[in-house]
Each structure stands twice: as C-alpha cells, then as structure tokens.
Design the sequence.
C-alpha cells in the first residue's frame, strides 16, 4: 500500500517517525471484521456459526476470525446483527456514561446506520432518535437498516443540517459523525487513498464547522454533542473540537477509556497499530450556553420545505391493526393516505414537527397499506420488535428457502398453510410476509431489498 507523500509527512510530524512506521505497517494488514448483535431480537453469540471474540468497549460487539458472505445469511437480513467497524462501536461506551435517562437524540450524518442502530440499542427505554442523511439514496439504505433493526422509536429524515432551523433546543443528544477526508478508511477502502489530498482536508474541516454551526442551536443547554470522524489529522479533529468549545460554547468531556485499550483520555484517537480496528476519532462535549449568536448559515442552497401532511388520528382505525402490535397502548395509529403508521405516543408531537419541517423517509412502524378492500401488512411491521406474532400464521423456512424468499422468488409453502397473509420466519426470526392464495404464495418481500447476487 503506497500512501500519499503529504499524508506520510503530516502523520510523521504529528505522531513521530517510529509511531508512523508502526501505523503504516498496520495499514498493510487485512482489516478486521466485526459485528454487533441485536439483543432486542433475542440474538445471542451462541446463535451464530461464526467464531466470535469480544470487542472490549461494546458488550454487543464481536470480532470474526474471517469475513463470511453476509449477503447469504438470513439472520443478517432479519436484523439479528449489524456489520460494523469495531472502533466506531466506542459510541456504546460513551452513551453508557453520559445518557442515563430517556432523551430525544439526533444522529445527523447517519447513513448507513451503524451508529443509529447502536444508539437505538443503548439509549434508555422511551428515547426517540431522529436519524438523518443528506443523500437520498443513502437515506433509503439508512431506513432499510433501521427498519430491520426493529426499534420503532426512530424517524429517518433526508435533510441538510441547515434545514433544522425550526428545532431550537430540541435535542438532548446529537451524534455528528462528520463527512471527512477518510484517512481512517485507507485499509478498509483503498480507493479512498487516491481521493485524499491536503486540499480535500482543508475543504473538509471547513465544511465540518459549517455543519456543526448549523445544528448547534438545536442542542439543549447541558446537552451532549458527540463529534467523530474517520481521520487522524488535527485540522478535522482536535482543532475542530477546540473551535466548537471556544466558539459555540462547550466543555470537552473525558471518554474514560480503560488504560489497556490504548486510547487517550479526552479527544480519543483509534490507530490500527494500537487497537484492533480502523482509524477513528471521537470527542464528547457538553453544551454550556444557549447563546444564539451562532445560527444556521442559511446560504440559500435549498428551497423552503413545504408543510408536510399530518397523520390523521382517527377513531375509525381498523381494530385489527391494534392487535398486530404488542403494547399497542404505547402507540398512536395514524392514517396517512393509503397506509397506516404507528408512532410512539410519547413522541407524537415531535413527529408532527418533523413532518412539518423535514423530509421524512420512514418513521415508527408502517403497519399496513390498503389493497382494494384489504389491509396488507407491511415489511416494517414484520421487522418490528413490537410485532404480535400470534396474529399471523407462521411458515418457518430452512436456509435455502429463506434465500429463495429473500431473492423475491416464488416460495412453496407447506400444504397445510392457511390462506391469507403468512409471516415467513427463519430460526424463529421474521423475514417478511407472503400471501398464500392456495396454489401458490405471492412473495411480499420488498423488491428494492432483494438479494441480487447470483451465488455465494
């Protein structure tokens, strides 16, 4: 691996020649593979055929001895685990220290969903997460991953930071994994090496400050701001943290890593030669002032969003929808056009505010859509931890049948399967719905989610 000369010089100056040589040697080694298990779907380490070893700073995180073909593992599609780089799982350690009661949280640059799914697992019961991504295609991937994760206490949006102008003092917690020059991805994504330059570093640190400035007013006083990048350089990391603290008003807090992890006390760098993981930087700040001098830049790139359609709370909601949900008293069921959606009652007002001001990609649980005179259960419901599995007939499938289903191909159900909507499960974990019409079953797995690879 040939690293850019300017990068070599910069890092040698920053960490010293001997330390840099160790870093360069580590970057020439294969990248480790790690997953994070979804305990809320009753997934356990013993459920998997992988050989696992623990990630020290995340109880749900595990290293794999080798990288399997996740695409052909039905448990992956069922949301039983998420493939996430181990260094970024350090967010788990941070949340355990600083978030001890229900919060309203924002993951600002959330795609593809690693930190959002982790936050949904770690945040106290009753918390609400808005997971945002500016690029629409990536926002769709984010929504897919969060739907599969199964926690309904989230809303996925597709917006710029400056679009959150109406959300002053709303969030108790903001996670900002800022777009960066990608130095920490050199080993995992060699293409990033060719895209790196000092000019790009300069562009990135300026853009990062704009993003933080645009969102800062939405964080409550004493709120927690978690700033991270996958870079090593001072401009995008320590100097930006210092700027946030001094210019916007914040106290830099310690991440309290254990000594054996090989990390520093406050601004925490992960180096591949020191830890088993990729390059990563994270810092935790507490907002110390509500001074509103720093407002969104509002540079006029985007038209003002139209008022979103409000979900209509109606007493005519089909009673069967309530039976589809466990703990249905915790949800408001909304009629939105030809579909029905369940939103946590605690956060219904927040959802309406989000609808009015932002582009919503997904929210809560999409329960069903109207098909003629019938209600067709949605994929979001099948994936939800709140699905009442006793309502639907269940067809348990083996691995090959599961792959067939996940390809959206025709599925042969047992002869005694009742007609109507059937929940397809693998090892007891829901994959989605099919409609059994007797001589065949219509596969209802989302076409945009299907397995496209022809073979393992």
Sequence:
């Amino acid at each position: 691996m040939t690293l850019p000369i300017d990068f070599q010089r910069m890092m040698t100056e920053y960490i010293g020649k001997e330390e840099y040589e160790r870093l360069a040697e580590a970057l020439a080694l294969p990248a480790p593979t790690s997953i994070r298990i979804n305990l809320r779907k009753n997934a356990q380490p013993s459920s998997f055929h992988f050989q696992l070893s623990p990630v020290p700073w995340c109880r749900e995180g595990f290293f794999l001895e080798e990288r399997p073909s996740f695409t052909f593992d039905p448990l992956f599609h069922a949301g039983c685990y998420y493939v996430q780089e181990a260094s970024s799982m350090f967010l788990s350690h941070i949340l355990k220290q600083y978030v001890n009661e229900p919060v309203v949280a924002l993951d600002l640059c959330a795609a593809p969903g690693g930190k959002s799914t982790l936050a949904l697992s770690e945040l106290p019961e009753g918390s609400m997460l808005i997971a945002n991504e500016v690029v629409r295609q990536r926002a769709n991937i984010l929504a897919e991953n969060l739907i599969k994760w199964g926690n309904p206490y989230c809303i996925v949006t597709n917006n710029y930071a400056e679009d959150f102008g109406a959300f002053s003092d709303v969030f108790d917690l903001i996670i900002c994994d800022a777009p960066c020059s990608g130095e920490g991805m050199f080993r995992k994504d060699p293409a990033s090496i060719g895209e790196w330059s000092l000019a790009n570093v300069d562009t990135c640190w300026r853009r990062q400050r704009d993003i933080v400035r645009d969102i800062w007013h939405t964080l409550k006083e004493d709120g927690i701001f978690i700033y991270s990048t996958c870079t090593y350089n001072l401009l995008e990391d320590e100097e930006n943290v210092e700027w946030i603290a001094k210019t916007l008003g914040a106290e830099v807090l310690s991440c309290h890593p254990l000594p054996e992890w090989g990390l520093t006390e406050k601004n925490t760098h992960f180096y591949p030669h020191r830890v088993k993981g990729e390059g990563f930087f994270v810092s935790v700040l507490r907002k110390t002032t509500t001074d509103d001098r720093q407002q969104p830049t509002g540079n006029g790139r985007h038209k003002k969003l139209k008022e979103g359609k409000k979900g209509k709370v109606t007493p005519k909601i089909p009673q069967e929808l309530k039976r589809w949900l466990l703990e249905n008293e915790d949800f408001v069921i909304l009629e939105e056009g030809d579909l029905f959606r369940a939103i946590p009652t605690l956060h219904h007002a927040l959802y309406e505010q989000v609808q009015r001001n932002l582009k919503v990609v997904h929210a809560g649980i999409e329960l069903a859509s109207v098909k003629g005179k019938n209600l067709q259960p949605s994929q979001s419901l099948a994936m939800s931890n709140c699905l009442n599995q006793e309502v639907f007939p269940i067809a348990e499938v083996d691995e090959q049948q599961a792959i067939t289903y996940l390809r959206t191909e025709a599925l042969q159900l047992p002869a005694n399967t009742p007609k109507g909507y059937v929940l397809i499960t693998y090892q007891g974990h829901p994959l989605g719905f099919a409609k059994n019409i007797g001589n065949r079953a219509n596969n209802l797995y989302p076409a945009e989610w299907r397995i496209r690879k022809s073979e393992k």
